[in-house]
Amino acid sequence: MNHKLKGALITGTVIAALAAGGVAVAAATGGEDDDGGDRPITGTALDRASSAALKHTGGGRVTETEVGDEESRYEVEVTRTDGSQVEVQLNGEFEVVGAEGDDRGGEDDGDRDEDRREGDADRD
Q1: In angstroms, rounded to a whole number, what is the distance separating the alpha carbons of residues 119 and 98?
Q2: Residue 26, Cβ neighbours under 10 Å: how many?
Q3: Nearest alpha-carbon partner for 112 in 97, 101, 122
Q4: This prediction's pTM
Q5: How far apart, in whole angstroms, are the C-alpha atoms of residue 61 and residue 79?
Q6: Range with the poorest average pLDDT among 12-21, 36-45, 93-102
Q7: What is the DSSP string of 20-77?
Q8: Average pLDDT of 74-83?
Q9: Cβ distance 76 to 41 under 8 Å?
């Protein structure tokens, strides 16, 4: 085998191996997310997070969960019976640290302002 061809084959093999290794690393770490987001809550953490979120919203149905959300340790999306959705942010102790809601499905709920972070209580 000539020396140039042998070098080209070795280079191609090394590039292919590096590419395959990169794909494996991306798959193992979740790919596009550096912060671990987009992973659903599981196990007893799911039970505790769901319970805390439903208590905060006054009921509804848990429709999505996420560990390591950019704003909190846990995020639980609750869909209320009127179709509106609330994203409840929880810390590692399953305490509500904030919530965001949309107004698509229901009436204003008066006392509860889901669009306000709990840390903004000085506006009351």
Answers
A1: 8
A2: 11
A3: 101
A4: 0.56
A5: 5
A6: 12-21
A7: HHHHHHHHHHTTT-SS--SBPP-HHHHHHHHHHHHHHHTS-EEEEEEES-TTSSEEEE
A8: 95
A9: yes
52 contacts 90 by C-beta, under 8 angstroms: yes
Using an 8 Å Cβ cutoff, are 89 and 75 in contact?
yes
**Residues composing the chain:** 124
The alpha carbon of 2 is separated from its chain's Cα centroid by a whole number of angstroms, namely 54
- pLDDT tens-place string over residues 12-38: 676 766 666 655 555 444 444 445 558
* CA 51, 52, 53, 58 torsion-angle sign: positive
